[in-house]
């Protein structure tokens, strides 16, 4: 109906990656990138191979071998090739002979040096090291199984001639050829600074993003793959805006190294109120005596033991001034630990909430299907993408049980819309201000980056 249509139109305004009009300036925290499929990657390789082939006057097969040897660095290839073409050709595993080999050859009474069988058909490169097709195929198949594609050398010992792509295609079956092409794509992406694989499990897409590593100190290049996985192009970790990569790396390392130790220290030790030595309570009595300075104090309130009077072993007092004074006397290391635990607990809670939200999303989809089967409402399916923006407050709304009453659903719809507007606007303000601050150098850090 018309109301549902209006709601769908209004919710579409909050899509994360809307294409903004040219008059609206680009957000500071956004980055330009392109998602590449396996076919796109092959097309990019073919384009670069064709360019090198045209400039150097070589075949596409030889140009591909040269590019892979130089890890797709065309500038370095051109420079070294112009200085010493013969040296480059030899180092790259190509033949200096201009005569191309016949991959397959019919001959009588040929004995394969690998299996020592007599065969009628052999295969080899321009080095004239020939073997039976079965042995050659098994050799190439083994190399591909080991993850090699860039430099599969001739099976002959001490021969460094490269088995080109045409020969591999002649030998391999469909399964082996698919694996070979996947490896070629992988080396192509790995050799380019501005190309990276999406880290999502079983994802075959790559991202092209022209962000130099030097800019990562002031910019967080967040991208979204075709599979909808969002990650940082700089470090390939999950989206961590607005924190820069080096800060996130230090934080994760600290969490991995210190979290368990810090939690144990916080739960099982306190500092002496006099000399600030760390003390572990390993008994049930609250009467503590510092071995270092002999100061006697209460483990519960941390006050002097002499002030407890008749309530020595049942301390129930709370003196705000004394507590504040004790807190002010904590050492810098203790304050640092408490600061870390404060942020670590928040980090861990938000991380746990994010995982629960993913489960909530799956359950919500099922509930949406059930509702649509029993009603004529369509707004949920049309706008389910907006539920992915859930934060803790928005999650609280979404976790409410859905009622079949259209009026209650309409109220819930409005509440979700209002909270979505607030969450999105606050998130954009945070990301925009942080990104500008990084680029302008306004932020200072407590750690060395």
Automatic annotation (TrEMBL):
The enzyme's E.C. designation: 2.3.2.31
Entry superkingdom: Eukaryota
BP GO terms, sorted: protein ubiquitination
Known catalytic reactions: [E2 ubiquitin-conjugating enzyme]-S-ubiquitinyl-L-cysteine + [acceptor protein]-L-lysine = [E2 ubiquitin-conjugating enzyme]-L-cysteine + [acceptor protein]-N(6)-ubiquitinyl-L-lysine
InterPro entries: ARIH1-like_UBL, E3_UB_ligase_RBR, IBR_dom, TRIAD_supradom, Znf_C3HC4_RING-type, Znf_RING, Znf_RING/FYVE/PHD, Znf_RING_CS
UniProt protein name: RBR-type E3 ubiquitin transferase
Region described as Disordered: 1-26
Boundaries of every RING-type domain copy: 108-319, 112-155
A Pfam family that the UniProt record links to this protein: IBR_1
Organism: Rhizopus stolonifer (Rhizopus nigricans)
Keywords from the UniProt entry: Coiled coil, Metal-binding, Repeat, Transferase, Ubl conjugation pathway, Zinc, Zinc-finger
GO molecular function, one term: zinc ion binding
């Amino acid at each position: 109906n018309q109301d549902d249509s209006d709601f769908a139109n209004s919710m579409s305004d909050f899509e994360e990656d809307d294409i903004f009009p040219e008059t609206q300036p680009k957000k500071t925290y956004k980055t330009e990138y392109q998602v590449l499929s396996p076919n796109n990657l092959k097309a990019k390789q073919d384009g670069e191979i064709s360019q090198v082939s045209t400039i150097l006057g070589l075949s596409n097969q030889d140009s591909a071998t040269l590019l892979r040897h130089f890890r797709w660095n065309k500038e370095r290839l051109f420079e070294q090739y112009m200085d010493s073409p013969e040296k480059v050709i030899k180092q790259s595993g190509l033949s200096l002979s201009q005569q191309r080999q016949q991959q397959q050859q019919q001959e009588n009474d040929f004995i394969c040096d690998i299996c020592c069988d007599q065969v009628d058909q052999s295969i080899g490169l321009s080095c004239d090291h020939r073997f039976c097709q079965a042995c050659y195929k098994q050799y190439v198949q083994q190399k591909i199984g080991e993850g090699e594609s860039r430099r599969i050398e001739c099976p002959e010992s001490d021969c460094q001639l490269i088995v080109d792509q045409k020969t591999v295609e002649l030998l391999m079956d469909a399964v082996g050829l698919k694996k070979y092409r996947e490896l070629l794509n992988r080396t192509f992406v790995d050799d380019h600074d501005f190309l990276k694989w999406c880290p999502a499990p079983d994802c075959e897409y790559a991202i092209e993003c022209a962000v130099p590593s030097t800019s990562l100190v002031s910019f967080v290049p967040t991208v979204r793959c075709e599979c909808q996985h969002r990650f940082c192009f700089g470090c390939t970790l999950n989206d961590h805006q607005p924190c820069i990569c080096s800060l996130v790396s230090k934080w994760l390392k600290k969490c991995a190294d210190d979290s368990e130790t810090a939690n144990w220290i916080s739960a099982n030790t306190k500092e002496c109120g006099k000399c600030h030595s760390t003390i572990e309570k390993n008994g049930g009595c609250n009467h503590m005596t510092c071995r270092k300075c002999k100061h006697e104090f209460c483990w519960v309130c941390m006050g002097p033991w002499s002030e407890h009077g008749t309530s020595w072993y049942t301390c129930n007092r709370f003196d705000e001034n004394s507590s504040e004074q004790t807190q002010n006397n904590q050492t810098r290391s203790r304050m640092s630990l408490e600061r870390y635990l404060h942020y670590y607990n928040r980090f861990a809670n938000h991380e746990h909430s994010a995982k629960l939200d993913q489960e909530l999303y799956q359950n919500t989809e099922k509930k949406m299907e059930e509702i649509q089967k029993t009603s004529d409402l369509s707004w949920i399916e049309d706008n389910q993408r907006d539920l992915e923006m859930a934060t803790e407050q928005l999650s609280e709304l979404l976790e409410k049980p859905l009622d079949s009453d259209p009026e209650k659903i309409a109220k819930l719809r409005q509440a979700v819309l209002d909270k979505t507007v607030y969450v999105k606007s606050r998130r954009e303000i945070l990301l925009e201000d942080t990104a500008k601050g990084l680029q302008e150098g306004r932020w200072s850090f407590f750690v060395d980056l």
